[in-house]
From TrEMBL:
It comes from the Bacteria. Its EC number is 3.6.-.-. This is NUDIX hydrolase. Residues 9-138 form the Nudix hydrolase domain. InterPro entries: NUDIX_hydrolase-like_dom_sf, NUDIX_hydrolase_dom. Pfam families: NUDIX (PF00293). One of its GO terms (molecular function) is hydrolase activity. Its cofactor is Mg(2+). Keywords: Hydrolase.
Amino acid sequence: MSHLSRTLPLKRAAHVYLVQDQRLLLVAERMDDGSIFYGLPGGKAGPGESLADAAVRQVQVETGLTVTDLNFVSLLEGEMLTGTRNECYAIFGRFTAHFRGELNPTDPEVVGTRWVPFDEVMALVRYGPPPEVEERNPLIWVPTRDFLKGESRSYYPI
């Protein structure tokens, strides 16, 4: 079987950079191994759902905030977690948006939210094992690092 004939499941997800006073909103989630993971609000798109619609829905659940006026920032795309049970072809959109409301997550996996100064965001990121957790892949965080430096590109191949 040639490399190109494999069929990989598609994973489409969208995350939003919510910014206030040079601080970025991150959500804290408990991972399967019990550790706390800080990530961008957002998540997986449902079948037939646009990335923008997924971003609005997921941010509402994970933060309690209502987001409007989404602006596309970047797309991250490529094969992820090759050789693991979570192997997939990932299409991840990143947006900025206006927001209103109070922080009040209703997602049971979210254990908190935090406004983090730009210069502290990357220090919260945890890389490494377990290997099947995409959020720990350093490539996933390159668009965010660039965004925080004001150097976003529109496309990032994984």
